[in-house]
Amino acid sequence: MFSFFFRKKNEVETLNPPITADMHSHLLPGIDDGAANMEETLQLIEAFMQNGYKHLITTPHVIDDFYKNTPEIILRKLAEVRQAVAAKGWDIKIDAAAEYLIDEFFLEKLNNNVPFLSFGANKYVLIETPFMNEPMYLKDVIFKLQSAGYWPVFAHPERYTYLCNDFKRAKEIFNTGVLFQVNLPSLAGYYSRPIQQLAERLVDENMVHFVGSDCHKMKHIDALEQTKRTKHYKKLLEMPLLNHSL
Fold it and tell me: Which InterPro entries does the protein's record reference (predicted)?
């Protein structure tokens, strides 16, 4: 492991597979706080291609009070984007799932066996919580998703205020069997220094299963490029990330 840091740059690129699949972004036009229109969607997709990506799984927000997206809305927009990408003749695979906010509305859907948009062969479901406070029913949601045949993926744990100063709690959540997904821009200090420090520690502790761009706008593409120059990005390339299986 430590010998990695003494390899030449071209050896790193040869020995470690690049990250070519992104599983957290907001690229579908006009349905959340991501791309506003098809022009912006295509601009972002082209930027991903220039960064070596081959597969994008975009995940619009599902938040009952703000973004009342349904599988029908998301899949209809996905079809429009695929058509636009095909018209460009671009060689990139575009899929869609969703980023679900864990709140009482999500819990109600879960209790009523409402199907969720998942991705991957293992039916991964991307979930997030409010940034300031952990929902009291988070553990229950994780257990019920697992019992329903889904594999919950915990979006950007490093960004939650309730975890930034409580690594013990982060480990407790990790040990429930939920998969951790770190935002790549976090490693470049895009959000804040405390968030960067927690993201780095999660990498150091091998507590990262997926990485995602969480791309909403071009500024996130710029942050993604900065991340590639960090030592913790290089550490990620040594890890068996599940992105490679997508």
Answer: Caps_polysacc_synth_CpsB/CapC (IPR016667), Pol/histidinol_Pase-like (IPR016195)
